[in-house]
């Protein structure tokens, strides 16, 4: 349709199977209905590189993942995340090469900071869309600099406030705030993109993984500032579970789209490791399942796709398509008559309320929509 882009966005992707494309079998038809699709890549597409010592859980991804993404309709890919440099500059370079070879447009990383901060600009049906991607989940030296490859950083600081000064050891309040030079650079990127495109979308790799509901201060601060600077839509990634949805000045902020297409097996050695046991505390319901392709907390079974119409007049008809992920790790769309539809709807409203984001999630046939409360 001339003058309108049908847009779809999903969360984190990292297939780890013999034929990566099969992970999209249950959702491919719905994804391909869109004119433009977007996702967050969580794995290096490489057979080279040396694992950096600061990398945590990581793997090498099959270069065929790039082809699987494009075939499914997810042709704009953010790689601005906490795995972008796991396999060093070789791993990053190979990932960018394979995405380009497959016909994808990558955003958020590059050989220099200028390239990492550059928006991806795509035109469809006479509408120009700019996507900017930044990362707040930053192992040391994963961010790009003038002469170093990496991602576009959006660093943040943490301050612990002792609540009862006469009671040593009591829990502290946790405050976070954005790194001002990074925020200024992001806002300039958005303003520059606004001059080149009809629609500007921010992808922000941020938040507290595996912990239900909580949205840290800096994440909301960045999202609001981005909208003030001209962004039309903010999409969050990284948490591996859904987070609440906010409406700010009429623009939607989805604080986490959760997982979408990730395989994650686990063995007993990893389940007993110090690193995993520390992360497991963030979601005590997380029980390893050694026969599963999908070792995440129970909350991670719930996901969603974002669909919207993009035009020169803005974002319209924005809706959330509930998705369920079982032990096979394949995302599946769930309709309104499915009990899981109600579970996702209720969960989204509960975590939105708990985070005090001030919006209502309403069912509309087989999709969910968000409304500003009050």
Description:
The chain is an alpha/beta fold and 374 residues long. The chain has a single domain (5-153, 179-372), classed as Metallo-dependent phosphatases (Purple Acid Phosphatase, chain A, domain 2, 4-Layer Sandwich), CATH 3.60.21.10. 24% of the residues lie in helices and 32% in strands. It contains nine helices and 22 strands. The protein has helices at 28-32, 64-72, 88-102, 113-117, 180-196, 217-229, 268-271, 274-280, 339-354, and strands at 5-14, 36-41, 44-45, 60-61, 76-78, 105-107, 109-110, 120-124, 127-135, 150-151, 156-162, 172-178, 199-205, 233-237, 245-248, 251-254, 259-262, 302-311, 314-325, 331-333, 359-364, 367-372. The strands form six sheets. Strands 1, 2, 5, 6, 17, 18, 19 and 20 form an eight-stranded mixed beta sheet that branches. Strand 1, helix 1 (28-32) and strand 2 (36-41) form a beta-alpha-beta unit. Helix 2 (64-72) packs across helix 3 (88-102) and helix 5 (180-196) runs parallel beside helix 6. The protein is globular and about 60 Å long. The protein starts with a strand and ends with a strand. The model has no long low-confidence stretch (mean pLDDT 96).
């Amino acid at each position: 349709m001339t003058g309108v882009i049908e847009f779809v966005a999903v969360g984190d992707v990292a297939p780890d199977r013999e034929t990566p494309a099969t992970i999209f079998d249950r959702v491919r038809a719905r994804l391909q209905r869109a004119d433009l699709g977007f996702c967050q890549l969580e794995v290096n597409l490489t057979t080279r590189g040396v694992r950096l010592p600061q990398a945590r859980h990581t793997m090498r991804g099959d270069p065929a993942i790039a082809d699987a993404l494009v075939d499914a309709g997810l042709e704009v890919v953010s790689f601005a995340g906490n795995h972008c440099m796991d396999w060093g500059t070789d791993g990053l370079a190979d990932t960018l090469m394979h995405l380009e070879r497959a016909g994808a447009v990558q955003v958020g990383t590059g050989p220099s900071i200028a390239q990492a901060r550059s928006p991806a600009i795509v035109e469809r049906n006479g509408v120009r869309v700019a996507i900017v991607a930044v990362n707040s989940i930053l192992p040391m030296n994963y961010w790009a600099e003038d002469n170093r490859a990496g991602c576009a950083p959006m660093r943040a600081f943490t301050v612990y406030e002792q609540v009862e000064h006469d009671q040593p050891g009591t829990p502290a309040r946790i405050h976070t705030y954005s790194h001002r030079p990074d925020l200024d650079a992001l806002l300039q990127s958005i303003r520059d993109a606004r001059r080149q495109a009809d629609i500007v979308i921010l992808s922000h790799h941020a938040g507290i993984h595996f912990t239900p509901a909580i949205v840290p201060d800096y994440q909301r601060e960045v999202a609001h500032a981005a909208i003030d600077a001209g962004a039309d839509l903010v999409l969050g990634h990284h948490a591996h579970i859904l987070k609440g949805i906010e409406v700010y000045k009429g623009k939607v902020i989805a604080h986490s789209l959760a997982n979408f297409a990730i395989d994650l097996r686990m063995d007993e050695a990893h389940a007993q490791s110090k690193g995993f046991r520390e992360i497991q505390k963030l979601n005590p319901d997380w029980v390893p399942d050694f026969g599963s392709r999908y070792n995440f907390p129970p909350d991670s079974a719930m996901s969603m796709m974002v669909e919207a119409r993009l035009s020169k007049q803005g974002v319209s008809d924005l809706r959330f398509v509930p998705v369920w992920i079982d032990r096979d790790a394949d995302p599946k769309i769930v309709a309104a008559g499915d009990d899981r539809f109600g579970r996702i709807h209720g969960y989204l409203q509960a975590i939105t309320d708990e985070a005090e984001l001030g919006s209502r999630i309403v069912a509309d046939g087989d999709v969910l929509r968000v409304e500003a409360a009050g």
